[in-house]
């Protein structure tokens, strides 16, 4: 199925210009249209028609910045009129096509590529060991979320705690809770 999904993305890229009936995509990869659309939505959180529209407008935006005319792009990417293209572009990008060209800015929708990522399955040995009670104290600060590697903001926070603050925290914790109190 992964190959079929990527074949569909390639088919879309090859047929961005002009009209692209969405049923042609599923027919090309040999998957029932309703199944393909459901799978696409589940994997990308966007409809197939949204993705095709976004890719067409993204390519049109790129060509606008290279000097192509709005009229040529409207018909090239399958719009029935310049007004329809302009409305779609403004809704998508927040700028009129002429403004995007003049300001040399816009928006991009990158091509989707489906890949498999396998995680887990590693063996891990463990042992539960009972330890004596200990105190825990903490500080709080908003830091950027980071899933891999060392989060330097947390390191900076830890390094910024002075010895005086550490002693103060120990006193506060011992006043709040002492062994045997709970």
Descriptive account of the structure:
This protein starts with a helix and ends in a 6-residue tail after the last helix. It has 9 helices and no strands. It is mostly helical and about 180 residues long. Helix 5 crosses helix 6.
The quaternary structure here is single chain
Low-pLDDT runs: none
Strand content: under 5%
Output mean pLDDT. 87
Shape: elongated
Order of helices and strands, N to C? HHHHHHHHH
State the helicity in percent bands. Answer: 40-55%
Count of individual beta strands: 0
* Count of discrete alpha- or pi-helical segments spanning 4 or more residues: 9
How is the biggest beta sheet arranged? none
Distance between the termini: 57 Å
Supply Rg.
28 Å
Structural class: mainly alpha
Short description:
The chain has 182 residues and is mostly helical.
Topology:
Elements lengths: L1 H13 L7 H8 L3 H12 L3 H18 L4 H7 L5 H12 L3 H7 L48 H9 L2 H14 L6
Helix pairs in contact: 1-2, 5-6
Key features of this structure:
mainly alpha, 182 residues, 0% strand
